[in-house]
Amino acid sequence: MIATPVSTKILAEADEQAQQILDEAEKQVQQIQDQGQKDLDALDKQIQADSDQDAQQEQHRILAAARQAITAELLQAKHQVLDEVFTTAKRTLTDMPPDEYRQFLVDLLKQAVSTGNETVVAAEGEKHLDQQLLDQANKQSDKTASLQLSQDKIPGSGGFLLAAGKINTKVTWEVLLTQARRELEPELAKMLFPASSEAPE
Q1: How many Cα atoms are found within 13 Å in the side-chain-facing hemisphere of 138?
Q2: Roughly what angle, to the nearest 10 degrees, separates helices 98-112 and 4-13?
C-alpha cells in the first residue's frame, strides 16, 4: 500500500479548491444549526407554556424527533462536504500539467516498486503512462529496475497496477483516494466541524 505522504500530497494538490468548498460548507452548516436551534427553542417554549400533561408529552416527542432530524441533516452535510473535497482532489490530479503529472507517476512507481521487475498495467483512463515514462522510472529507481508496460488495462480513471507473479499492487486514483479518505477523514471532520465530536460514519 502507498504511504501516507502520497495521500497527503493528493489532498494538498486540491488545497485551494477544497478550502473554497469548506468555507461554503461552514456557512451551510451554520445555517442548518441556527435554523434548527430556532425550531427547537420555539418547541421548547410551547411545551413550557402548555399545562396539559398529555400535550407536553406529545410535544416532548416532537422535540426529540426534531433534534434527530437536525442531527441527521448535519451528518448528511458532513458527508457531502467530504465527498466534494475528495472529488476535487481527484479532479486536481487529472488536471495537473502533463510534465508534473508524469513526474508524479514516476514518483508513485518508484515508491510502489518492490522487485524492480514488475509489469505495469495502466488504468483505462490513464493517458500519460507509456514505456518512455517507465524507462524514466527505471533510471531514477534506487533499485535495479526494468519495469515493462503491459498491453492490458485495469478499471480506473488514472494510475496503474504493478504485477509481479501473484503479487499485484494497485495504485489507481480510486485506490489512493479511498486510502487517503480512510486515513484523513477523522482529522478533516474535526477541522471542518469542530462543534461536533463524532466523525462521519
Answers
A1: 16
A2: 170
Between CA 135 and CA 137 the distance in angstroms is 5
Most confident range, picked from 2-11, 12-21, 48-57, 129-138:
129-138
Q: Which structural domain, as residue segments, surrounds residue 159? A: 98-165
C-alpha cell, 61 = 416527542
In a domain, 113, yes or no: yes
Q: For position 200, what pLDDT does the model report?
A: 43
Q: Using 50, 70 and 90 to split pLDDT, how confident is the model at 123? A: very high
Alpha helices in the chain, H assignment, sequence order: 4-13, 15-49, 53-94, 98-112, 131-140, 173-192
Give 144's DSSP letter: -
Give percent of the chain above pLDDT 90. Answer: 22
Going edge to edge, which strands form the sheet with 159-164?
Answer: 148-154, 119-123, 159-164, 167-172
d(CA 170, CA 18): 26
Number of structural domains found in the chain:
2
pTM score over 0.85: no
Same domain, 24 and 73: yes
Q: Assess if residue 84 is contained within a domain.
A: yes
